[in-house]
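Q: Hi! First time doing this. I have a protein sequence and I read that you can turn it into a structure. Is that right? Here it is:
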Amino acid sequence: MAPGDAGDAMAGGETVIAAGMGARGCVTDAEITFAVRDACARARIDVANIDVLAGLQRQETDGALSAAAGLLQTQVLLYHPDTLKLAGGRCVTQSGRSMRATGVPSVAEAAALCAAGPQGYLILPRIAHPTVTVALAQSPGATRP
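A: Yes, that's right. Below is the predicted 3D structure, encoded as structure tokens:
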């Protein structure tokens, strides 16, 4: 799917494993890729099983997120802050920076949960790297590899 405000990846009923990203404006595709690989290692998931890289629709980070998705050979979904707020109640961590900037407890968790669909759940809560945070979520029907 092309970058832009997106619905959840469950629209077609498929199961997904999503990597949600929160990022500072200075983030690079290499930093995002490293963070996703680290999250997958911690969750014992092969990075090839990540179906979507999801994040906040934001001009400063859209290019790096799209480039990282290309490097990871996955699609990218970018969400408007109002869409991420809908998943905010399902976040398990909270970042003061994220709350001040977007009103969402964790952009990474909310983006992963949005991409995994309304019944999606976190399999790895937000972990922080210097310029990026990442969380992993999956839809209910996905079997963990």
